[in-house]
């Protein structure tokens, strides 16, 4: 019986953080040995629970695929046997595997391919955590209440009958004294039942609270802005009441940066910045703010710890308007033209760029991007959203974008932090926010660490099945709704951001 | 009602035994489906108990006189209790299925549907025991009642498995839980049973059936299917060796058997004191010594499954802790906690005397 798993329960950790907000599935695109593959892992909502892995391989000579999850805190000796993947009927390239995860935490999911050409192995980082507080369906609730009422009534009747008549010879009628005893027993049984209902309800509420406290959720962070000369400095620190695990001395670099920070102006969504603050100490990050217009910004900051776990830190921050020379930069932004800026393009030779990270970039445009599948880029170029068909929730898709210059010629893309593109994606109500790149949604830092640990192939940072002016992001939207997508590419040394509004419909 | 009684007895024994199988399965394989073999067997056991009780109700209803009436229906009291348990089990299972797929085990182990399931199991086995106590018209009937009491003891020990590992058998909580529960059943069985030593027979039944699981389960090859695997296993894990309840049960039978059912007042309290204290003394003495043996290399064999070598795969355990008593997990038995345990044994025995008297007078 489940209760006997008490030991396992005692080992379940207290709280976990989400690497992506509202987007629990893991997407990975890369190469295992000689085979290109795409992996989608859907972790379970509860633990122990079954995780699903969809593996798409284009090569037809793959004969066998197996999947093995390793719990990262526990070591290789504790790895369970591999689960074999089965081909999905009707799609010769798609394989599916299910595997059990005993508890939440960081896993390395090793995908092993066998083929005549030697096959290959790749390890995908997975953070498994519960995301949502359960809600009982009304029909089930009503059924259980009906059952409960019936059982309580029956228990009271049974107690009364036992006290009244159990000792009587068959056929004998109960005396008034027997009846009185029966009534007392019924009263006692009613009391016990009431106590059980209240006790059970109290326990449920208590457990639900504990469960909700331990849900994977973005961690709050404290953000403040201070002025230093001409510059505005953004300062980040863990909240004062944060648990000790929030310390930032165990972070590792992802795409060469300890932190990827996104700022989105609300409610207009017309200004967007992708910055890389510098760690000052275990409890502080600092970064120079680019000259984005003043206002309230939603801040998302992504970090990866050395144990492979990733977190998203969130807060809202009020930014002052830029001043001096920088103010001129923004004046043509919102409501006017489109500005895609990065330090290399800002005042070459001046002092200011050295304070900003070379890979920082920011974008200002209209609050409503041009409808349709084409977004204007700074300098007259455009970016097209090339994925065919409509977008459906929970359906594995490749979001493909292509960049063109002002003359309509394909724009050659250059690596931007080791990738041909970065995409940030936000549901209109803010319940989903995720950061994608062509290798998927995984933290590259966690993937590289896992590759070293498992001895598998390192994830290929430049993996892209697209041609040089196109970039592709594997993803499945977790829910239907309106999403805004910011796609960032680098061309001619300059970071360009295309902004799209996309609609995702319900599956089924 | 011979057939119904036998089926009810088999079903009530199968309830704790399938739970032991389930414990072993989850400790070895870890993968736990709603209709996994031990679960399916467990549901079947409850269903069989419900069917046998229903059949008893049909027979009693046609008989027209005996049993406890409900509208036009009649059934022996025990059958009603078992039926209530089977119905409660259906509700608890519905609730549990939703809970498991929404909270999993992350919210805790003793969650409301789990407690509801335990209540339902107890109703099923206690109902069977009550029904069979009412049918002790032959030596076979008396033996069946003792076996049914063994199922109640086994069910009690199953819900306390986590506290009953040999490493915890010097702890205060183990003795306090044992003293609060087992005397109730053993004393009632000793008073209401018609065998020469009814409580001892029940204790032997519990020990025999549990030991059989200790011996049989490890014959089945199985290995963990979920990670992390801290303890490699290649066969089903044996459950902990049964408690030596027969030792205190013999004393209870010696004190209580033949005690007048209508004995009242001070004599009853004296009897409860004697029964409670003797249970406490013998249970502590026997189990204290036996636990030391179970953790020693001498017990590291198929018979006792001891020696600190058999652990659920998911339990990360320090090598030194395997054969040690876990005083750091739950404090050892001291003078005060022993006094509390003795007091609990006394109250439990007193309640057992009351229950046993009522069950002995049971006519329906």
Give the structure's gist in a few sentences.
The complex is a heterodimer of chains A (508) and B (364). Chain A has helices at residues 6-11, 138-165, 176-213, 325-331, 352-355, 444-454; strands spanning 26-32, 35-42, 49-57, 62-71, 83-84, 86-87, 94-101, 105-115, 120-128, 219-220, 222-228, 231-237, 251-252, 260-265, 271-275, 278-281, 284-288, 295-305, 310-319, 339-341, 361-364, 374-376, 382-385, 391-392, 397-404, 422-427, 433-436, 470-475, 481-491, 494-505. Chain A is α+β, with helices and mostly antiparallel strands.
Structure description:
The complex is a heterodimer of chains A (508) and B (364). Chain A is α+β, with helices and mostly antiparallel strands. Chain A contains 6 helices and 30 strands. In chain A, the strands form 6 sheets. In chain A, strands 10, 13, 14, 15, 18, 19, 20 and 21 form an 8-stranded mixed β-sheet that branches. In chain A, strands 1-2-3-7-6 form a 5-stranded antiparallel β-sheet, with no helix packed on it. In chain A, strand 22 and strand 23 (382-385) form a beta hairpin. In chain A, helix 2 (138-165) packs antiparallel against helix 3 (176-213). Chain A is globular, with a radius of gyration of 29 Å. Chain A starts with 5 loop residues before the first helix and ends with a strand. Chain B has 10 helices and 3 strands. Chain B is 63% helix and 2% strand. A two-stranded antiparallel ribbon of chain B has the order 1-2. With 364 residues, chain B is mostly helical. The interface between A and B is large, with 66 and 63 residues.
